Amino acid sequence: MRVTYGVTAIVLAAGVLTACGSGDGPEKSVDAFLSGWRSGNLDAVGFIDPGGQKIPAGDVTTDIKALSGELAATPPALTRAGEPSITQDIATSTVNVDWTLPGGAHWTYPTTVRLKKGADDKWQVIWEPKVVQDKLTDGDEFAVERETADRASILDGAGKPVVESREVVVVGIQPDKVAGMEQLVKDLNAAFKSVGVEVDIADLPARAAAADPTHFVEVVTLRKEVYLKIRQRLQDLPGTRFLDQERYLAPTREFARALLGTVDPVQKEDLDNNPGKYVVGDVIGHGGLQERYDDQLRGGVGQIVKIVRKTGEGPEKSTEEVAEVFKAEPKPGTPLKTTLDSKIQQAADAALRGNPRAAALVAVRVHDGTVAAVANTGDVNLAFDASVPPGSTFKMVSALALLDKGAVTLDTKVDCPKNATVDGRSYKNSHNMALGSVPFRVDFARSCNTAFIGLAPKLGDDGLATTGRALGLEGKWDMGVNAFTGKVSTGGSATERASASFGQGTTVVSPLAMAAATAAVARGQWQQPVVLTDPAPAEKAAPGPELNAGSVEAVRTMMREVVTTGTGSALKDIPGEPVYGKTGTAEFDNNPANTHAWWVGWQGDIAFAVFVEKGGDSGTSSVPVAEKFLRGLA
Q1: Do domains 154-301 and 342-633 have the same CATH topology?
Q2: Which residues contact 200 (CB under 8 A, 6 or more apart)?
Q3: What is the SS3 assignment for 432?
């Protein structure tokens, strides 16, 4: 794609060129000319035309600026190539010209400066347009065109394009053709909602009133397939107009959107923050991988320098191309290869679709830790970036720590009272549950907080932190994208240790961190999650230690019983391989009624975490999301 544009001023270091010959030689005048060309002040140089008539230096300055056209704001670097050659009273000097074009490309070429020795023995520059470039004549000027390469795709784990150029239709209006603006807004809203498109067009009347009545005022951009569903309905509305375009898009609007980001027209803020890098008409990445790897995906910009001549006056004025004198080909962008699985990603997106709360679902492969899906209900990547308490999903970690220390076995009787008090602070179970003295596996499956509070002293000062780190929490991960790896409570007061035993206190995690920890339990060893394979992580974290086989097998047994007899029983009839997991609710402020909802678990080779912000009871928010996801994979 080519875009013609005016060059933004770029400040260049302009060292003054000094003469290196004798004081009476032509080299002194050549050097003064080159210095004046760069600085815009030629008063120190004498000029004549090819016929020998004197020319004011100011006229030459004006001519150079006019001939330079769109390069006038960026005068070239100029160097004299050796000593001038002299034949009687005529000297000829070769000069190397080096223009720095927008985007950084260099256009270099030699030109010739001729001089004539006057009666006063002073050398005067013979001025003519071809001194600037040999194809220039009076009335010509340089014009620059910018040529961009096709943007490279983001690929899924199978190497197939996820984000690629797709057809869209820009829906807009022409204000002077609208019959009634208020009714139009209502009709547009109804049409968009009929295909599940939510767009705020409350400001459309004001934007239309401020625009030229005959101009196109954009309303929304729709994927072509969505537009076709309501095409007739929209076209029947007086004043609507439509533009066919192409945009770089994922298969659906929601497809891993917070991870991938979007590709959109450059905004004023982008231009202001990156002077000279973008021009109006460019499309660039905003957010996620599209923004972080924008330079790689966009590739290098090409430039074409042309000589043009403007003819005519007023409305009849036109620009004629005379010659193309330089071309730097655009450099194609390089694709990004992710580990996403398109089928699993679409199942994750569908599981969250319509959820009224901020929510995230991240899935990783048990056998190698690669990320199969990253879904969020909004544009914020909560799946990777959230820093929130894990609630009872952390009993997976606490149980592993207790088993490693020999504090319990699956069948150790552990009391589960309705309430527990630690240093004056009262704790209770969800729904005021009380199980009495039951096997530890039952406490786990039914998610008894008070049982874990009673066992908290057996964890020691750093038991949770040690086990959490063995599961990858708090680690330094190089993923090529930001991710929060968690912070595990260590030591502290008796109440802090009690709270931490069931995922409260100061412990915070991200869904990705919990999904990776869950995959470690399923596999028997933690491996760093990976979402990008090209470019690959430079310093991927080393695998964690092999987990104690007896302890981790006991945790797996209990996580299966969560599904068969415990708080995750809604998942027991999921088709396919057995489902393992742990529910969780997590208080996030001083009001016990305010809780996030969690689920972590796995089926076959897919481990995943579900997080629903302010979701309340996991049985009515996170578990249904998990069920919808797993049924979508079946």
Answers
A1: no
A2: none
A3: helix
Does the domain at 342-633 match CATH 3.30.43.10? Answer given as: no
Cα distance between residue 50 and residue 127, in whole Å: 7
The predicted-structure confidence for 133-175, as pLDDT tens digits, reads as follows: 999 999 999 999 988 888 999 999 999 999 999 999 999 999 9
Amino acid at 547: L
On whether the CB atoms of residues 394 and 499 are closer than 8 A, the answer is: no
Tens of pLDDT along 61-113?
Answer: 999 999 999 999 999 999 999 999 999 999 999 999 999 987 778 999 999 99
Query: Which DSSP letter does residue 250 get?
Result: -
Asked whether 489 and 468 are in contact (CB, 8 A), the reply is no
Q: pLDDT (tens digit, 9 = 90+) per residue, 319-359?
A: 899 999 999 999 999 999 999 999 999 999 999 999 999 99
Nearest 5°: the CA angle 63, 69, 74 is: 100
- Architecture of the domain whose range is 154-301: Alpha-Beta Complex (3.90)
Domain extents in the chain? 2-147, 154-301, 342-633
Label the pairing between strands 77-80 and 85-87: unpaired
CATH number for domain 2-147, candidates 3.40.50, 3.30.420, 3.10.450, 3.30.450: 3.10.450
Question: Averaged over 502-506, what is the pLDDT?
Answer: 94
Q: What is the C-alpha to C-alpha distance for residues 621 and 142, in angstroms, rounded to an integer?
A: 64
Going by C-beta distance under 8 Å and a sequence separation of 6 or more, which residues neighbour residue 78? 17, 34, 37, 38, 95, 96, 97, 98
Rounded Cα–Cα distance for residues 73 and 61 (Å)? 13
Q: How many CB atoms lie within 10 A of CB 573?
A: 10
Amino acid at 409: T
